[in-house]
Amino acid sequence: SWKSSFRPGVSPHTPGHGLKVRPLCATDYDKGFLGVLAQLTKVGTVTREQFMARFNAMKDDKSYYVCVIEDLNKREVIGAATLVIEQKFIHSCGMRARVEDVVVNDTYRGKQLGKILTVVLIMLSKHLGCYKISLECSDQKLPFYQQVGFKQDGTNYMVQRW
Ligand code: 16G
Q1: Does CATH number 3.40.630.30 belong to domain 2-143?
Q2: Pocket test for ligand 1, best of 34, 40, 161 (most atoms within 8 A of CB)
Q3: pLDDT, tens digit only, all 162 positions of the chain
Q4: Residue 101 CB less than 6 A away from ligand 1
Q5: How far apart are CA 18 and CA 102, in angstroms?
Q6: N or C: which terminal CB in the chain sees fewer CB atoms within 10 Å?
Q7: What is the ipTM of this complex?
């Protein structure tokens, strides 16, 4: 199980000294949430008002579960990952889960925090009754996600950007 892939003492409930796994809060705008995301990709300019509008829209939608890790001593968000739930007609009007925007602050890497975030989202998707969970990642991150049970199934990820 996922438990065996954590080092002794490390788990979602005990992520490390002074660290806490919790849902995203409105106050995380001031705790460096967007700065952490900027270590994944381009964030651009996001004002407090824009952040709050998106935060509230995601909350009202009930399909977004943004999970963060806070360093309580520094009052800083040091990791984040999002679960998105898609409603379907297939699979008896089933639901599909997607893992998005997984990132850990570079100075906190090597502590299994990315694994904690991913495992929390897997457990949440099972709890919500999703029939599968999927993600897109670079070749370099394949071993990381294989560790927690993801497999390549021959499906290709395709994209258009503009
Ligand atoms: C990665 C992320 C994806 C994120 C994208 C951003 C995971 C598992 N995958 O594919 O969620 O949205 O990078 O890259 O975290 P982009 O800015 O090029 O879309």
Answers
A1: yes
A2: 40
A3: 667 679 999 999 999 999 999 999 999 999 999 999 999 999 999 999 999 999 999 999 999 999 999 999 999 999 999 999 999 999 999 999 999 999 999 999 999 999 999 999 999 999 999 999 999 999 999 999 999 999 999 999 999 999
A4: yes
A5: 21
A6: C
A7: 0.98
